[in-house]
Amino acid sequence: MYNKDSAIGNKDNNFNLIRLILSIGVVCSHAFDLFPPSISYTFAKLTQVGSLGECCVFQFFGISGFLIFQSFLRNKSFLEFLIKRFLRLWPGLFVCISLTTVILGPLVTQMSIKEYFQDKQTLEYWLGNISLLTVRYHLPGVFEENYYKEAVNGSIWSLRIEFACYLMLLFSNYFVYRWLSRLEKYNKLIPKIPNLVIITLLFIYILTCIYLWHDIPKVILLIELKFFFIIGMIFHLLRKKIKFNLFILVFLIINWICFKHTFCNRIMYYLLIFYLLYCFAFSKSVRRAVKLDSDICYGTYIYGFPIQQLLYFYFPNLTSLSSLIFTIPIVLALACLSWYIVEKPCIKLIMKFRLIFPSLIKL
């Protein structure tokens, strides 16, 4: 009998492949924003839900909710969970932002090198983005003549939202669930795991909105992304019961059609896609055909945008489609370097941390 818990634990699943496809989907979507369109981009018109990139980001959050919740429940320590999440997200981002600031910026800026590094915007870009407290899109004099002038790296906006998910999950369970679980009456009324989810839902909304309070125009998008993170958590709780079923698929399709002209249209469509991806993730036939153990989706996601901007800077005659011929191989190469040189070694640091601080890791 196929054991999903075992498949998740020993990585005998297709999540790496799915996330890589989604990150390439984001790169392809950005090509139509960063280069002159060579064809009419009809994805949003066909689905009436938004761009391909937006769809992929929503699926990322759903998968993250599934996998991060799995990690949270398996970790014996709250501190270990936080360290793991930090080592997975931050080192790759730090290197990407640093390379962009120190190498790419001086290479293409319209200012002198001295003026570039003396400009306070340079330091603000570097510090703001690696801190995950804010997002900075501009470097002085960089890509100001490009087809798209609004950002050096427009993909990084979602990272602090995802990191906020980790913090809120940690906060809600450590400071609230642990305290409430000491009340005997409370434990008798509500089982632990569903209670953990309920408390998380409450605090993840309230505290994340406070964390991002100054981005009022993005509040709706924020709530929808958090909702999808929570959907992923719920899928994890029901993982043994959820499997591919034609009845469920038809139900989700009808559900989407019924809500197509309402504000729920996007959520219903993305939920349908997420269900299909979830079933695809545990397909043994796909796993036998394509076995991807390297998790290069993160590098693909964060390096795609600046590489596309750089390509337009040097080759402005490229169109959206022709640019992808060059973009995808370059980005995948950088993603592999990021995974094997930066991300994977940093993930392994948790083992050394356990040896050095055995008592601290139990917190």
Gyration radius, in Å: 21 Å
Separation of the first and last Cα atoms: 36 Å
The residue ranges in which pLDDT falls below 50 over 5 or more consecutive positions are none
User: How many domain modules?
Assistant: 1
Helix content: over 70%
Strand content: under 5%
H/E element order: HHHHHHHHHHHHHHHHH
- Count of discrete alpha- or pi-helical segments spanning 4 or more residues: 17
Shape: globular
* Strand element count: 0
Mean pLDDT: 81
Largest sheet: none
Question: What would the keywords be for this entry?
Answer:
mainly alpha, 17 helices
Structure summarized in a few sentences:
This protein has 363 residues and is an all-alpha fold. The chain is 72% helix and 0% strand.
Overview of the structural elements:
With 363 residues, the protein is mostly helical. The protein has one domain (4-362). It is 72% helix and 0% strand. It contains 17 helices and no strands. It has helices at residues 4-9, 15-34, 43-47, 52-74, 78-108, 113-118, 120-131, 157-180, 184-189, 192-211, 219-237, 246-258, 265-281, 284-289, 297-314, 320-347, 349-356. It is globular.
